[in-house]
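Table S5 (text form). Sequence records supplied for joint modeling of the two-component complex.
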Amino acid sequence: MGKKKGPQALAAAQQFGRSVAERRRQIGLTQEGTAERAGLHRTEVALIEQGGRLPRLDTIVKLGGALGVEPCDLLAGMAWKLEPPKEGSK
Amino acid sequence: MKPGLEQGDKWVQKEWTLAERFAANVVWFRHQAGLTQQELADRIGTNRTVLSALERGLRVPRLDTVLKLAAGLGVDNCELVAWMWWDPPRHESYETPPEVAEISGYEVWDFDVPARFRVSPVGYESRERFKDRLRQMREEDPVLKLMRKDAPKVAPRQRPDARWVLRTGQALKSLREERGLTREQLAKRARTTAAFIGEIEEGRIFDPGLRILTEICRALDGDGSELAVQIEPVRAERKAAVQKVLGRAG
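The corresponding structure-token record, covering 340 residues in total, follows.
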């Protein structure tokens, strides 16, 4: 992840992390258990929950499956505010 | 050819990848919005080449791209990530020695289908049907079954008191002996060590952890509720005591 992340991306990552953590606690899984079920590494689940990582779509779907929800439930309430297109860009 | 499919549905036989499924969703909603690739790319502030690769299923987008696309296409996030699912792996892939199987009437379970993405090709099944399928899969999930609200629950990370620990150990021991298993045999099934089982049984381990308890439950009866049922009353008692201390009983 060498890419720079904008403030919106960081906020999105954090919100995603929160919804994952919330759902995980709700069903009483540990981070380790979640990681095992999602086929991810424990540290990655921890990192995502802290909002330190923008997960790829496959990770989102994996986490959804591991937590027994549809991927879309983890994205609930997230919206992106688009910037107006720059003038003069081809 | 799958039964019930027309010649024209031949593309259904193709294995769809997750990226292709996402790509199909994007293309569908882009056409509905009447946008060209260039227009959509401009809206979300990316390059047309990048969008093109994404729409051919060559790229797996990150969270921000998914959100940007949903905003650019003016659709709900759910629409873009519909028809995708992941099956958690099931840990039933250990072998039971034949003599153990004889003693306990224990069946060697089949190796389960490996975990993988499930995607539905475009137009192949309705969203209702796909959701039904997901619901069914979720209901069959042994771990989620154990964690459902109405199921007797073994919560992780709740510091059990000494009595809880002792009770867990006793329950485990009696269940194990009921099945005529030695510690070694149980350990082999639960993929842990005999020493660890011993520690639990003698009440020396605080909070063995949900994963290992689940493994042991499965090794014991393939269901997991039995051990949980024995533990539950003590936990309820403990919860009441804690609530009393905190002054918000009831």
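Note: The radius of gyration of chain A is 15 Å.
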